[in-house]
Design a protein that fits this description.
Elements: H1 2-9, H2 24-39, E1 43-44, E2 47-48, H3 54-61, H4 71-82, H5 96-103, H6 111-134, H7 139-142, H8 155-161, H9 170-177, H10 182-199, H11 221-231, H12 246-257, H13 269-275, H14 279-296, E3 304-308, E4 313-318, E5 321-331, E6 340-349, E7 353-354, H15 357-370, H16 374-377, E8 380-383, E9 389-390, E10 408-411, E11 422-425, E12 434-435, E13 449-451, E14 455-457, H17 460-468, H18 475-484, E15 488-501, E16 505-507, E17 513-515, H19 523-531
Parallel strand pairs: 3-15, 5-13, 12-14
Antiparallel strand pairs: 1-2, 3-4, 4-5, 5-14, 6-11, 6-15, 7-10, 8-9, 8-10, 11-12, 16-17
Helix pairs in contact: 1-8, 2-3, 2-6, 5-6, 10-14, 14-19
C-alpha cells in the first residue's frame, strides 16, 4: 500500500529532461527551487510555497523543466481545487485565487510568470494530496494520546513511481487519494445535501413547551411538520395540521433514529433540542467527521474491532465487512475514553480488577475513609505490590487519600466485579480495555458515558467467540469457563487490531446520516483547525 500511496500522491514527475541549456522558464524554476532548498521559504504571487522537500526533489528530478505543459491537466487541477469543498476543505488552501488571477493576467507568456505559475500549481496539488491522505488538522497536536500518525511514504519511492501529469489523470489521482470507504462517501453526500438545505433557508426553530405525543393538538405542530419535511422524515406536503397524528409519530421516530435517540415518538427536551440545532452546525459536524475519516480510514485492517466512543457502540469488521455490533458504555466527560489504536492479544475470563491509581485516589480511598467495610461489601482485598495479602484491619484508613497509599486494592472475580466476567486485553498505558459489566441496566440509556474510561460491552461473549474464531471455543465452552469461577487466560491465535475512535456522525442502516452528541466537546477544536490557513504538521510527513 505504501508503494500505491507514494505512486499516486504526486502524479507529477515525468522523465528527466536533459539538455545542454535551459530555457528562461526552466532557469527561473531552478532559481525558485534553489531558494526553497536553501531557506525553505518562497513566495509567489503573494502565496507561500509550502513543500520544501517533495517539490524541490520533483523539479530536480526533471532538470527543472515545467510540469504543467498539458492544458487538459491544468483544467483538471483547477476543477479539483474548485471542488475541494466536496471534501469539507477550502479551495483557498490550494492557491486557487492566485492561480486563476495569474492565468487571467495575459502574462503567462512571460517566462518568469509561467515559471511561478507552474510551481504554484505543483504546490497546490501537493497540498491537496497531503490533505486527502493525512488530513489538514494535526490529530497528534490535538491529542497527545494519538498513535495513528500516517505518512505519505518515502521521498525516493514517491519520485521514482510518480507518473506524468501530461497524461491528464488528475481526477483519478484525487479519487485514489480519498479514503476508499463507504462512510466517507456517505459523508460527502450528506455534506452536499445539507448545504443544499442551507441554501434553501434551512429550518425554523421549534418553540419550547411541554412534551408532545401522538393524539395531542398544539400550535407548534405545524412548525414541527415543516422542520421534518425539510430533512425528509416527513414527506407529506400537509404541514398545516396541528394534530399529532400517526404519520407525524412515524416521522418523529425516524428523526429520533437519525439523532441517536430512543425512537418513542415523544417530542421531549432531547428531541426538541436536536430539532433546533442549526443547519450550519450540522454541516460543520459533517466536515469534522470527514477530517477524522482522513486520519484513520486509509488501509483499515481486514479484521478490526472499532469502538465508536461518541456513538456508544462497538463493532467487529471481519474480512472487510461489519459482521457484528453491540451497545457500549464509555468514559464520563471527566474521565474520557482515550482515542488510540492497539492489538487485542488475549481474553481473560473471570478477571480480577486491580483498582487503577486515579480511581483509587479519587473514588475508593475516600469511601474507605468513611466506611472500612466497603472492602468486604465489594469483594476486595489489600495486597502489597509484590502480591502479598495485607490485613485491612491493620490500616488506618483515615490517613487516605491525603497520604500516598502504599498498597494495591484488587477486586476478586465474580458477577459483581467491575469488569464483569470477561475482559479483552490490549495492554496499554491508559489501562483501558473492553470488558463485561454488572451495570447492565445502563445500556438502556440513550447516552452511555458512565465508565471511568474503559469500554463496557453489552454482549461480550459474542465478541469473544468471534475473536477466538476457533471451533473449540464456542460460546457455550466460554460460559463453562465462566461457571468454573477460575481466572482463565485465553490467547487469540492471531492478535486483532482495535481502534478507539470518536465519531459524531454515523450512517444508519437505511443510508441516512445519524448525528450524535459531542459528549467530550471535541468537534470545536477540529473545526477550528479546518478553518485555519494551510500548514504542514510538525511531525514528519515522509517516512524515514
Amino acid at each position: 500500500m505504501l508503494v500505491r500511496i507514494s505512486a499516486i500522491l504526486l502524479m507529477l514527475a515525468v522523465q528527466p529532461v536533459f539538455g545542454t541549456s535551459m530555457s528562461p522558464q526552466t532557469e527561473t524554476i531552478r532559481t525558485h527551487v534553489e531558494q526553497v532548498r536553501a531557506s525553505g521559504n518562497l513566495t509567489i504571487a503573494g502565496q507561500t510555497i509550502s513543500s520544501a522537500l517533495v517539490l524541490p526533489s520533483l523539479y530536480e528530478n526533471r532538470d527543472y523543466a515545467p510540469v504543467w505543459d498539458n492544458p487538459q491537466a491544468v483544467r483538471q487541477l483547477i476543477e479539483t481545487l474548485e471542488h475541494a469543498d466536496n471534501d469539507g476543505l477550502i479551495s483557498n488552501d490550494y492557491h486557487l485565487p492566485a492561480i486563476l488571477k495569474l492565468q487571467a493576467s495575459n502574462l503567462v507568456g512571460d517566462p518568469a510568470i509561467a515559471a511561478g505559475l507552474d510551481i504554484l500549481m505543483t504546490d497546490a496539488l501537493i497540498r491537496r494530496g497531503y490533505h486527502l491522505l493525512i488530513g489538514k488538522v494535526d490529530a497528534e497536536e490535538l491529542d497527545a494520546n494519538w498513535n495513528m500518525t500516517a505518512t505519505i511514504g518515502d521521498l525516493d519511492t514517491v519520485l521514482s513511481l510518480a507518473a506524468a501529469i501530461e497524461s491528464a489523470r488528475i481526477p483519478q489521482l484525487i479519487e485514489q487519494l480519498r479514503p476508499d470507504h463507504a462512510y466517507y462517501a456517505y459523508l460527502q453526500q450528506g455534506l452536499t445535501r445539507y448545504r443544499s438545505i442551507r441554501e434553501q433557508g434551512g429550518w425554523l426553530s421549534v418553540p419550547s413547551g411541554p412534551a408532545l405525543k401522538s393524539g395531542m393538538a398544539d400550535t407548534r405542530i405545524p412548525v414541527i411538520r415543516e422542520r421534518l419535511n425539510v430533512t425528509g422524515e416527513l414527506s407529506t406536503a400537509d404541514t398545516k395540521s396541528n394534530i399529532y397524528d400517526e404519520t407525524l409519530t412515524g416521522a418523529v421516530k425516524q428523526f429520533q433514529q437519525h439523532h441517536g435517540l430512543t425512537a418513542d415518538g415523544v417530542i421531549g427536551p432531547a428531541t426538541l433540542a436536536a430539532m433546533n440545532v442549526p443547519v450550519q452546525a450540522r454541516i460543520d459536524q459533517i466536515k469534522v467527521n470527514l477530517e477524522r475519516a482522513r486520519w484513520v480510514l486509509h488501509d483499515l485492517p481486514e479484521d478490526v474491532v472499532i469502538v465508536d466512543i461518541a456513538g456508544f457502540e462497538v463493532s467487529y469488521r471481519h474480512s472487510g465487512k461489519i459482521v457484528w455490533s453491540t451497545l457500549a458504555q464509555v468514559g464520563t466527560p471527566y474521565r474520557e475514553t482515550p482515542v488510540f489504536r492497539d492489538q487485542i492479544s488475549y481474553l481473560e475470563v473471570n478477571p480480577t480488577w486491580t483498582v487503577p491509581p486515579t480511581i483509587l485516589q479519587k473514588d475508593i480511598l475516600p469511601k474507605l475513609a468513611k466506611d472500612s467495610s466497603y472492602l468486604q461489601q465489594n469483594n476486595m482485598q489489600v495486597l502489597t505490590h509484590d502480591g502479598k495479602d495485607v490485613d485491612p484491619a491493620t490500616i488506618d484508613w483515615s490517613q487516605y487519600p491525603q497520604k500516598r497509599f502504599p498498597y494495591l486494592l484488587r477486586q476478586k472475580p465474580g458477577p459483581n466485579n467491575a469488569l464483569g466476567r470477561i475482559k479483552f486485553m490490549f495492554p496499554n498505558k491508559h489501562l483501558v480495555y473492553l470488558h463485561d459489566t454488572p451495570s447492565r441496566n445502563l445500556f438502556e440509556r440513550d447516552h452511555r458515558a458512565f465508565s471511568s474510561g474503559c469500554i463496557r460491552v453489552m454482549h461480550p461473549f459474542e465478541l469473544a467467540e468471534l475473536l477466538l474464531d476457533d471451533p473449540q471455543w464456542t460460546k457455550s465452552r466460554i460460559e463453562e469457563v465462566v461457571e468454573s469461577k477460575q481466572t482463565t487466560r485465553i490467547n487469540l491465535a492471531k492478535p486483532v487490531t482495535v481502534i478507539l475512535m470518536y465519531w459524531t456522525v454515523n450512517i444508519t442502516d437505511d443510508g441516512e446520516l445519524m448525528f450524535k452528541m459531542d459528549v467530550y466537546d471535541r468537534d470545536a477544536a477540529v473545526l477550528s483547525g479546518l478553518n485555519k490557513p494551510f500548514s504542514f504538521r510538525n511531525a514528519p510527513i515522509l517516512k524515514d
